[in-house]
Design a protein that fits this description.
Chain A has 337 residues and is an alpha/beta fold. Helix content of chain A is 33%, strand content 13%. The two termini of chain A are 16 Å apart. Classes of the chains: A alpha/beta (337), B alpha/beta (545). At the A-B interface, helix 1, strand 2 and helix 9 of A face strand 1, helix 17 and helix 18 of B.
Chain lengths: 337, 545
C-alpha cells in the first residue's frame, strides 16, 4: 500500500499527499477534490478561523456520504460542532442531522439505527459524532454501551483536547502539561495539565473488541477518507478518532491547523493506526520525524515550557510519551507493531 | 400566533445567510510567481510551463516541445550543451536534488527530431528584410524568431557549414553532428536563406547592397588568444579553437602522444579530452591557479578526470624547448592572484595547446559609424542595438558570458527588438513576477524522489572514441524527472486549497487548468489555503478597512 516513505503513489509530483492531483486517475483523488462533494457542513457556520473540527467533520461526513450514496443520518453531541453549526434558526448541515444532549449522542445514534432496523431501512446508515468532551467524558457511558450492544453505528470523535465551546476547560483527552482554563501552570509543581494515563479512547474502544477502530488527523486527507470508507463497508459498532487542532483553545495561528496535525503525527505524540476486532492491523509510519518541541512551540498552551529557564524536564517527559508511542505502534520505518 | 409550534418563531434557514466573509481582515489571493529556473535561464525559456506539459506523459510531449521552441529552437542541442543555470537555481536542490531539467529538454528535443515536428508560421509577412551575419547559435536563434515574426531573413556565414561554435567549438562527443544538423535544418526549412562561405567586410555596405532593413551581427569569437611562449622550431604549439575547428575537417590533427593544454576553462577541458581521443597517452592540463578558481564547469573537470586527464595546478608555461615544457610553480597571494615562485619543473610534451580564451574578429565593423568597442567586444544597448541605428548585435561578440544558451537568448531578445523597431515601436518586456523562493513552498506535499542520473559511457570506453559521452533518458525516466518539478510559484491544480478550506470558500472552477476562486462571501481569512499550498501560489493580502 505504501512504500517506506509512506508514499502510496510514486513519481507523481505530489503523489497522494495533496487533496487532488491532475496526473492521478480521478478515482484516486480525494472526495474533497471532487466538484460534486456533498459539503455536508456548508459555508456560513460560525466556527473560528482555521477550525480543525469544522474541517474534520466535513472530511469525514463527505466521505461517508459518498460511501452511502447520500443515505446517511448524523446524531451530534453538544459541543463546538453543534453550537457553531446550528444557531437557531440556521443550520449548516446538508444531511439529516439530530442533536439532543451533551452526553447522549451515541445513545441517540443507537436509537436511530434501531428505528431504521424496525422500518426495514437497511440502506440508510447512521453516524454519531461529537467532540472529545462529549465523547471521552460526558457521553462515555452511552458510547461504551453502544459498542457493547453491537449497534450498527459509526461514531466519530473530533478530538481538540479540551472543552473549547465553554472556554477551554480540560477534558479526559487533554494532554499532559497543556494549559487550559483550569490547568493553569503555577510554579514548578504545576506545569499545566497533570501527567497521567489520560483517557486513550481508541484503545478503550479496541478493548471492546468492536469490528473497527481507527485514528486519523486533518493533515492526511487520503488516510482519513479511506478509513471512513472502510468503516462504512462494515456493520456493527465502529469508532474513528480524528485529531483536530483548535487555533483558539491552543493559542495557535489559524493558518497552522493542518501543520500542527502533521507535526503531532511526525513527532509520535499522536499515533495514526487502525484496528480490527481489537488488534492493530495498520499504522501510518512517520515520514520525517521531528522532536516534540517542533509540535509544542507554535502553541501558546505550551508557552510555559519554553520560558526562561525552559522546562526541559517536562519536555523530556513529553518526548518519552512520543517515544513510547513510536515503540508501541512501530511508527518508524523498519519497526513493526 | 404564526401557526408554528410553541417557541418556534422563525423559519428554519440555511447558514448560507450568514456571510462570514465580514470577519475577514486579510484575504487570500492567487498569484503567479517567477520560478527560479525560468528566472535563471539565459534563453528566457518558460521551463516550468514545458515541464508541466511533459508531466502528462506521452500525450504532453508535443505540446511541451512546442512551448519550448517558442523561446529556443534548439532543445536537443540545449539539453546536451547548456550548463543549465536553471538546475543551479532549482528549489528542489534544497529538498533532495535539482530537477534534471536538461535531460528532459534533451528527451523532448530528440523526440521532436524523431517525430519530425515542425514549427508552424502564422505571422503575416511584414515585407521587411533582415540580414543576420553569422550562423552560430545567436544568429540562428535571431533568424528563427524574426522569421516567426513575419520578416524575411538571410544569413551570411563565413564558414562552410552552419552552427558556429556549436560545430567548431563543441566536440562531437558532447554534441553529435546529426543532432546539430537536424535542428539547424528545421530553422532553414522555415524559409531562412543561408549563404555559406560569405565573409562580410563591411556590415553597413552588405546591408545596403542586399537591400536589408535591419541587421543582426553575431560573428562570435573565433580567434584563439595567444600568449608568447618561447619555443624551439620543432616544438608544436596550436591554439584550442583551431584544434577543435580542425576536428570538423577531413584530416585529424597530429598532436603526438604527450599533449599539454594551457588554460583552465571549458575549452581547455574540451581540448584535453579531444587530444586523448586523438590517441594521446598523456593529456595534461596546466593551469596557473587552483581547481576552485578554475572557470571550467565542475562536471567538465570531473568527466575529464574520469577519462584520465591530468591537472597541473598553480603552474605557468615558461618555455617549450626540445620536447620539454618548463613550468614555473605559482603561489596565490592574499588577493588570490597567482605569483611566480621561481621554482621550475619540466614536463615532457610533443605539443602544447593554448586554451587561453577567444577574441572576436570585428573587422566587419570598420568604418561603421557609431560603433563602440571596448575590451574587444561591441557595446550594445538594452535593446541589443549597437550605436549604429538598425544594426543590432549579440552572442560572443558583445559583453556577456560566452555560452550557447546566452547566444540563443541574445538572438531571441534582439529579434523582438528588431521586430518592434522595424514597426516603428519599442519593445517593452512584461512585468517580472516576484521570485518564488524555497521558503514560499510547502514541500511536505511533494513525493520523495531523487533525481534520475543520466547513464554515462564507461570512461575507459569513451576516452578513445568520439561517441556521445552522456546518453539520454528513456521515456519513463524523463516523465519521472519532469514530475519532480515543484511548480514553484504557479498553481498546478492539486486541489489542496479547495480541500483544506474549513468554510468551503474556495470554489473549484472546473477541471485541472481552470483553477480556483475565493468566495469572499464566506472566506474568513484564516490563511490555511496559503499555508497548505504546496507551490506558494496564494498569498494573504490585508483588507482595506
Amino acid at each position: 500500500m505504501a512504500d517506506s516513505n509512506g508514499q502510496r503513489v510514486r513519481f507523481y509530483q505530489v503523489g497522494s499527499f495533496a487533496a487532488g492531483n491532475r496526473l492521478l486517475d480521478p478515482e484516486q483523488r480525494t472526495v474533497q477534490a471532487r466538484m460534486d462533494r456533498s459539503n455536508t457542513l456548508t459555508s456560513g457556520h460560525r466556527a473560528c478561523q482555521g477550525c480543525g473540527e469544522a474541517l474534520g467533520a466535513r472530511y469525514a461526513l463527505d466521505a461517508a456520504m459518498r460511501a452511502t450514496d447520500g443515505k446517511l443520518i448524523a446524531a451530534n453531541a453538544t459541543g463546538c460542532l453543534e453550537v457553531f453549526s446550528t444557531p437557531f434558526p440556521e443550520s449548516s448541515w446538508q444531511l439529516p442531522w439530530i442533536h439532543s444532549l451533551f452526553g447522549n449522542a451515541p445513545a441517540v445514534a443507537s436509537g436511530v439505527a434501531a428505528a431504521l432496523r424496525a422500518k426495514g431501512r437497511e440502506d440508510v446508515r447512521v453516524i454519531g459524532q461529537g467532540g472529545d468532551g462529549g465523547t471521552v467524558d460526558i457521553g462515555f457511558g452511552c458510547l461504551s454501551g453502544m459498542f457493547e450492544r453491537g449497534d450498527d453505528v459509526l461514531y466519530v470523535c473530533y478530538d481538540n483536547e479540551a472543552y473549547m465551546n465553554t472556554g477551554v476547560q480540560r477534558s479526559g483527552a487533554t494532554p499532559p502539561a497543556a494549559r487550559t482554563a483550569n490547568t493553569k501552570p503555577i510554579g514548578r509543581e504545576h506545569p499545566g495539565n497533570q501527567f497521567g494515563q489520560g483517557k486513550d479512547l481508541p484503545r478503550i474502544a479496541m478493548a471492546h473488541g468492536i469490528p473497527y477502530v481507527a485514528t486519523a488527523t486533518v493533515a492526511d486527507l487520503h488516510d482519513l477518507e479511506r478509513k471512513v470508507e472502510a468503516a462504512m463497508e462494515l456493520h456493527g459498532p465502529r469508532y474513528i478518532h480524528v485529531f483536530v487542532p483548535c487555533p483558539l483553545g491552543w493559542g495557535a495561528a489559524a493558518a497552522d491547523t493542518i501543520k500542527l496535525a502533521r507535526l503531532v503525527v511526525e513527532s509520535g505524540l499522536f499515533p495514526v493506526f487502525e484496528a480490527a476486532g481489537g488488534e492493530v492491523v495498520g499504522v501510518s509510519k512517520i515520514r520525517h520525524q521531528v522532536p516534540v518541541e517542533d509540535y509544542l512551540k507554535p502553541q501558546r498552551r505550551y508557552a510555559h515550557l519554553f520560558g526562561d529557564p525552559p522546562r526541559t524536564d517536562v519536555i523530556e517527559r513529553l518526548q518519552a510519551i512520543a517515544d513510547a508511542n513510536i515503540a508501541r505502534y512501530g511508527l518508524l520505518d523498519g519497526e513493526t507493531a | 400566533m404564526n401557526g408554528k409550534p410553541y417557541a418556534i418563531t422563525l423559519d428554519v434557514g440555511t447558514s448560507l445567510a450568514n456571510k462570514t466573509g465580514s470577519w475577514r481582515t486579510e484575504r487570500a489571493v492567487y498569484v503567479d510567481r517567477m520560478p527560479p529556473c525560468n528566472d535563471a535561464c539565459p534563453a528566457g525559456e518558460n521551463i516550468q510551463a514545458w515541464l508541466y506539459e511533459a508531466e502528462e506523459g506521452e500525450g504532453g510531449y508535443e505540446s511541451a516541445w512546442r512551448k519550448l521552441v517558442e523561446e529556443n529552437p534548439f532543445p536537443a542541442i540545449m539539453g546536451r550543451v547548456c550548463y543549465h543555470p536553471c538546475e543551479t537555481a532549482c528549489n528542489r536542490a534544497q529538498l533532495d536534488e535539482a530537477v534534471g531539467i536538461h535531460s528532459v529538454e534533451r528527451f523532448l528535443g530528440d523526440e521532436g527530431i524523431r517525430q519530425g515536428w515542425q514549427v508552424e508560421l502564422d505571422a503575416e509577412p511584414s515585407g521587411k528584410r533582415v540580414l543576420v551575419i553569422g550562423a552560430g547559435p545567436s544568429g540562428l536563434s535571431a533568424a528563427y524568431q524574426l522569421t516567426r515574426l513575419g520578416h524575411a531573413v538571410t544569413i551570411y556565414e563565413a564558414g562552410s557549414l552552419p552552427g558556429g561554435m556549436m560545430r567548431f567549438g563543441i566536440p562531437q562527443y558532447r554534441l553529435p553532428r546529426d543532432v546539430l544538423e537536424a535542428e539547424v535544418q528545421r530553422i532553414l526549412d522555415l524559409g531562412v536563406e543561408l549563404k555559406l562561405n560569405t565573409t562580410v567586410d563591411n556590415a553597413l555596405e552588405a546591408m545596403r547592397e542586399g537591400g536589408f532593413d535591419a541587421a543582426f551581427l553575431a560573428v562570435g569569437a573565433h580567434i584563439g588568444r595567444r600568449a608568447y611562449v618561447p619555443a624551439g622550431e620543432a616544438d608544436r604549439i596550436v591554439d584550442a579553437v583551431s584544434l577543435l575547428e580542425s576536428m570538423e575537417g577531413e584530416e585529424r590533427p597530429q598532436l603526438g602522444r604527450r599533449v599539454a593544454i594551457y588554460g583552465g576553462g571549458d575549452t581547455a577541458m574540451d581540448a584535453a579530452r579531444t587530444a586523448k581521443r586523438l590517441g594521446a597517452t598523456d593529456a595534461v592540463v596546466v593551469y596557473r591557479r587552483t581547481r576552485e578558481r578554475m572557470p571550467a564547469h565542475d562536471f567538465e573537470v570531473e568527466e575529464a578526470s574520469e577519462e584520465g586527464i591530468e591537472m597541473r595546478w598553480l603552474s605557468t608555461v615558461k618555455h617549450f624547448e626540445g620536447g620539454k615544457l618548463a613550468l614555473e610553480r605559482m603561489e596565490l597571494d592574499e588577493s588570490g592572484f597567482p605569483q611566480p615562485t621561481g621554482e621550475v619543473e619540466e614536463l615532457e610534451a610533443d605539443s602544447l595547446v593554448l586554451a587561453l580564451g577567444q577574441e572576436a574578429d570585428l573587422s566587419l565593423l570598420d568604418g561603421v559609424p557609431g560603433i563602440e568597442v571596448s575590451d574587444g567586444v561591441v557595446q550594445v544597448g538594452p535593446n541589443m542595438m549597437t550605436g549604429c541605428e538598425g544594426v543590432f548585435a549579440g552572442g560572443d561578440m558583445v559583453p556577456a558570458e560566452r555560452t550557447v544558451t546566452v547566444g540563443v537568448g541574445h538572438g531571441k531578445k534582439a529579434a523582438r527588438h528588431i521586430d518592434r523597431w522595424l514597426r516603428g515601436e519599442a519593445f517593452e518586456p512584461g512585468p517580472r513576477h516576484e521570485l518564488a523562493t524555497f521558503e514560499s513552498l510547502n514541500t511536505w506535499y511533494y513525493s520523495d524522489a531523487p533525481r534520475t542520473v543520466q547513464p554515462q559511457l564507461e570512461a575507459a570506453r569513451r576516452a578513445s572514441n568520439f561517441a556521445e559521452v552522456v546518453a539520454g533518458l528513456d521515456e519513463e525516466s524523463a516523465v519521472f524527472e519532469a514530475r519532480r518539478c515543484l511548480s514553484c510559484g504557479n498553481c498546478f491544480s492539486c486541489d489542496n486549497c479547495y480541500g483544506v478550506c474549513p468554510d468551503n470558500a474556495v470554489i473549484k472552477l472546473g477541471e485541472p487548468g481552470e483553477l480556483y476562486e475565493i468566495d469572499l462571501d464566506f472566506c474568513k481569512g484564516c490563511g490555511l489555503c496559503v499555508a497548505e499550498c504546496p507551490c506558494g501560489a496564494i498569498e494573504m493580502v490585508p483588507e482595506q478597512i
